């Protein structure tokens, strides 16, 4: 590629809020044949809302107080549902699982089904189809829960369909299988392209596994949890609204929240290389 065509390509990108780290990144994007999307904050708006609560009020109060210390989007949904203050001891974040702490001498855990299962806490069979579930355990017993929903971004469906004309699209999420499967059906992503219940440290492993099958992989994500996967991918694409860590790990940064920019980035790469040949 000539320096001039690359400068033109990166310049056009910048005009559209698509920032390539450099010429090499602009070049490599055209070779990508698989695009992996993180769910929360990438395909979805990332402003989840509590649609239903289950169980004990006291436990819900504890959970709301505890989540004030977390910056996770789900924590935001929970603190929006109610505003409660308690002194908290021994607060811990368990990445991709949830949070825990001690409130008025009681052990409180707020997190995913996986987190509860790993602690051998039997799950109640509350249901709300397609919703993300967050459970609240007090003194080693699940006492309450939240059904939480996060809307798709307006362009998500269209972008997935456009990309699927030339590339394989995958969904990668820490959320539970049922939520991921339902979303995949809605978006037209094949069931065997869905990786759910994935811990932050495992996200990069899924990218590696795809690469091992011969795929050239672009990973699109926003969260702090996505940084290792972004760095592992052949091309890491970070949403500019995301965390600093994600941005540092990225080859391409999209300013704004519009997924259509992923398509723009791919097209720019293809066009730049065409001009060279
Ligand atoms: P995603 O991959 O969809 O961005 P994360 O890896 O951030 O999701 O989180 C995975 C799961 O862990 C969430 O769906 C949720 O069940 C649980 N979780 C993570 N952080 C919290 C928190 N602060 N409070 C409650 N649950 C949490
Ligand atoms: Mg995310």
UniProtKB/TrEMBL annotation:
It is found in: Cell membrane; Endomembrane system. Its main location: membrane. The keyword RNA-binding does not apply. It comes from the Bacteria. Keywords: ATP-binding, Cell membrane, Copper, Copper transport, Ion transport, Membrane, Metal-binding, Nucleotide-binding, Phosphoprotein, Translocase, Transmembrane, Transmembrane helix, Transport. Belongs to the cation transport ATPase (P-type) (TC 3.A.3) family. Type IB subfamily. This is P-type Cu(+) transporter. The chain holds residues 377 to 653 of 710 of the full protein.
